[in-house]
Amino acid sequence: MPHLPEHLLAGYRNFMNGRYLTESGRYRELAREGQAPETMIVACCDSRSAPEAIFDAGPGELFVLRNVGNLVPPYEPDGEFHSTSAALEFAVQSLKVKNIVVMGHGRCGGIRAALDANAAPLSPGDFIGKWMSLIAPAAETVSASTFMTATERQTALERISIRYSLANLRTFPCVSILEGKGRLSLHGAWFDISTGELWVMNKETGDFERPVLE
Q1: Per-residue pLDDT tens digits for 32-89
Q2: Is the dihedral of CA 205, 206, 207, 208 positive or negative?
Q3: Is the Cβ–Cβ distance between 210 and 199 less than 8 Å?
Q4: Ramachandran region, residue 55 (left: φ > 0; alpha: ψ -120 to 50; beta: rest)
Q5: 5-20: b or e for each residue (b if 16 or more CB lie within 10 Å)?
């Protein structure tokens, strides 16, 4: 029995004979000098919405954090374990990224779970339920709207959750101070899996708009 699933080994073989072969110099440079990405992406774990693929990014270009529902919790220096906050701290304080993009996506399972008040926990720990409770107030408001279809409610909360995460990012002193000095920019985006469309949040209105591609 192989130590890795065969499809992963086949993919690695293609990587070594393809992308790595053409970008080996870049990989050696990154190994020697370290990473210096200008942009951090906070994205969902969903296997259908990989930021590196969506933005056609090469090695070392993006610092990507992925969690269920692409959520950022508020700043809580309480001594507990905070994976998302740790990654954010490293990106801002050590890598000194210039941009943070919170990217949600359509048909998100985490958002669907947040909208389903009757959903049974997947385990006794109910880790997903606890995590998605970060947007519980918005989920309750959206769920109560009988004027929207289920699909419309899902899309609405997916986009609202992006604005929630952006607001929570600003509770981190290192983020708010640098943003105030113009050294860090925050952005929101939403990716439609079925069409490949990327919608970008207008910073002034909060609306999501399709960028004009030339």
Answers
A1: 999 999 999 999 999 999 999 999 999 999 999 999 999 999 999 999 999 999 999 9
A2: positive
A3: yes
A4: alpha
A5: eeeeeeeeeeeeeeee
Token duo for residue 92: 């801002």
Closest CA to 199 of 212, 186, 190, 207: 190
Q: Are 44 and 66 in contact (CB under 8 A)?
A: yes
Interhelix angle 136-143/150-169, nearest 10 degrees: 160
In 3-state terms, what secondary structure has residue 66?
A: strand
d(CA 35, CA 29) in angstroms, rounded, equals: 9
* Tokens 């943070």 belong to residue: 100
Instruction: Give the residue from 203, 171, 208, 173 showing the smallest Cα distance to 187.
Output: 203
> Which tokens sit at 129?
């339920």
The two tokens of residue 74 are 């508020």
- Answer yes or no: are the C-beta atoms of 71 and 44 closer than 8 Å: no
Q: Are 142 and 132 in contact (CB under 8 A)?
A: no
Look up the pTM and report it: 0.96
Asked whether the CA dihedral 175, 178, 180, 183 is positive or negative, the reply is: negative
Q: Tokens 């029995």 — which residue?
A: 1
Instruction: Label residue 119 by pLDDT band (50, 70, 90).
Output: confident
126-137: b (≥16 Cβ within 10 Å) or e: eebbebbebbee
The enclosing H or E element of 138 equals helix 136-143
User: Would you call 104 helix, strand, or coil by DSSP?
Assistant: strand
